[in-house]
Every structure is written in C-alpha cells, then in structure tokens.
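testing teh design pipeline on a random one, pls ignore if ur not involved
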C-alpha cells in the first residue's frame, strides 16, 4: 500500500475510452487515479479483443506485475518532461498495483482557452509546442528510447485498427458512416508516407488540447498531462493538436466568427511551424501534417462510433458522434484531393475551410 494510514475518499469517475480514471482524495490531497487494462483501450477490452472478463482479469494480474507497463512508462514520461526537458508536468504521486496516481492540476485547459479566446488560437497553440522544444535534447532522447509509448502513436493506432483482416469488420459496426470511413481508410493507407530515414525526433505523442493546462491563465506556462513520449514524425504533435481542436469545434458549435478565428489560428500555427522551410519543403511537411491529422481523426471518430453502449463516453465525444456526417465529409473530401495529386498547400486550405463548415450547424 502506498498510504496505509491515509484517509482515502473516492471521487467522481472521469469518462474515457482509453483508461479508467477517477478522482480521489488522500488525506485531503486531490489526485487522479488511472488504471489501464492490458495497455489496451477500454473500447477494445469491452469488444472482447482480449477475451472474456475472466480472461482479462487473469491477464491483467500478470500484466501489472510485469516491467514496462503502459502506466509505468507514462509515469516515467512525466518525470522526463519535468526533469530533463524543462517543461512543466503534473507530478506523479505514486504507482502501485497497476494504478497511477497523479496530482490534480486546476485551471483552464488549452481547449477552454481556445473556446474562450478564439482570436488567440494561433498564439496559444504555438506557445504549447514551443514549451516542448526541450524534448529534442540528447539526454531526453536517450531516456525516451528506454520507455517509449510507441503503441499509442497515430500511425501505429491506425495500422492496428484498420489492418486488412479486422478493419472492414470493425468499420461495419459504425453503420452507414462506416461505409464512408472505409473509403477514407483505403485512401489513407495509400497516402501513408514511407518510413523516414534515420532517427525520428522525440514527440509528446498525445498532445490533445485537454492535456495542456494553464493554472495561471493564458499568460502563464502550460502544465502537461498524460504524455505518450516516443520517436515519430516531426508533424505528429501538431497533427494531433489540430485534429482534436477541429473535433472540439465540431462538437461545440461556436458562432461563425469564433469558428473562423480558431481555423485562422490553426493556419497561423502551421505557418509558425514551417517558417524556416522553403516552398517545396513546406509542401511536403504540410502533406504529412494533413495525412496524420486525418489519420488521428479517423482513429478517434471510429472509436466513438463503435463504442459499446455500456461504456460512458465523455460529453464532447457524444457531441462529435452527432456531427459524424460533417466530420466524414471533411475526411472524404480531403483524402480524395490528396490522392488526386492536388497541391498539398491547396488541400490544406480546402481542409481548413471544411473544418470551419463542420463547426457551422
């Protein structure tokens, strides 16, 4: 036991499709407790990927006692961020028996700030990426290579979900929307970039707008949650940040001016990320960015659409499923344009226009 004499009070459950998360208080100290079943998403476990519940329980007992579990690596990633990369990250309060305890960070998330101050979207998104530049220090790369969470990468998740054997069966669970997604997946499989030569940079890996918290408000430094540190393509973090920001737009249905401001901020953000590139290099960078953006959106949208009924979804996920047609239109049009050989910079502009439309209902 981590705190054998402490008074422990269970708080509310935080709905998630990946892990079981709950607020707890230990002697009045506010923490989050997280449990990962076999390192898989809860959706996969409930679908029977790892067998029946008796099999899952038996396998979990062995899994949580083995070295290198997902939450063990996540805990190490938080330490690497804070101690070696110079970023602010929530502190690990303990890790035992397959449960990771982290301190609660209060304050608006990047998602909250983008909704409240859409005209600052480009600035805020850029600042979040700049805060993570310390990930490229050699000492960080050496540490991350020992604990990388490669299985949660955009490309790895896409390949696992949509392989040639189980992919079509999986998408049929999404009904009519699944038919559109099947076409999108087929194009994305053809658009996947060839493996990059040499070592890839270290990336945060799970840079969602909800994983950057601003305890001191928008003028302060962000504190990071739930990292998935690994080596991947340099566009990875920007792609996930854009993907989830666009989905949040679709879910929240802001007024037209706010949606336009956020989409304009995304363009400013991408311009900042490519400021040092020549025209041809920027075109290639943008193409890879868009492909990873669409892969991530396809990954999470398909998860939401096929989620078992007995798993509570976060409210924003329910709202995204109600906007599935608009999101699929963006995915369908953009993948078709890319596969047709349209200039990536033109595809990028068209995709952003469709992102604004997806939020306008």
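output:
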């Amino acid at each position: 036991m981590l705190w054998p004499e402490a008074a422990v009070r269970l708080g509310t459950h935080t709905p998630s499709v990946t892990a079981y998360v709950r607020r707890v208080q230990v002697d009045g100290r506010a923490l989050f407790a997280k449990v990962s079943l076999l390192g898989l998403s809860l959706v996969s476990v409930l679908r029977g990927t790892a067998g029946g519940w008796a099999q899952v329980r038996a396998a979990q007992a062995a899994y949580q006692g083995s070295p290198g579990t997902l939450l063990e690596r996540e805990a190490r990633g938080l330490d690497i961020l804070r101690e070696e990369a110079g970023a602010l990250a929530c502190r690990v309060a303990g890790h035992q028996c397959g449960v990771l305890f982290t301190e609660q960070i209060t304050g608006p998330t990047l998602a909250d700030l983008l909704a409240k101050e859409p005209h600052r979207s480009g600035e805020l998104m850029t600042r979040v990426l700049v805060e993570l530049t310390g990930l490229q220090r050699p000492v960080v790369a050496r540490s991350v290579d020992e604990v990388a969470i490669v299985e949660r990468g955009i490309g790895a998740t896409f390949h696992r979900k949509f392989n040639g054997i189980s992919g079509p069966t999986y998408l049929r669970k999404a009904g009519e929307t699944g038919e559109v997604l099947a076409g999108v997946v087929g194009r994305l499989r053809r658009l996947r970039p060839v493996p990059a030569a040499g070592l890839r940079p270290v990336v945060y890996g799970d840079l969602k707008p909800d994983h950057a918290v601003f305890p001191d408000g928008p003028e302060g430094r962000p504190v990071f949650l739930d990292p998935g540190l690994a080596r991947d393509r340099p566009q990875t973090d920007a792609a996930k940040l854009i993907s989830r920001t666009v989905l949040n737009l679709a879910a929240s249905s802001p007024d037209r001016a706010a949606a336009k401001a956020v989409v304009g901020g995304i363009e400013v953000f991408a311009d900042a990320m490519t400021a040092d590139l020549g025209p041809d290099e920027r075109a290639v960078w943008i193409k890879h960015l868009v492909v990873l953006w669409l892969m991530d959106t396809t990954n999470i949208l398909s998860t939401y659409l096929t989620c078992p009924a007995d798993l509570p979804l976060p409210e924003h996920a329910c709202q995204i499923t109600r906007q599935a047609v608009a999101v699929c239109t963006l995915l369908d049009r953009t993948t078709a344009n890319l596969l047709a050989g349209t200039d990536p910079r033109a595809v990028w502009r068209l995709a952003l226009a469709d992102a604004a439309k997806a939020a306008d209902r």
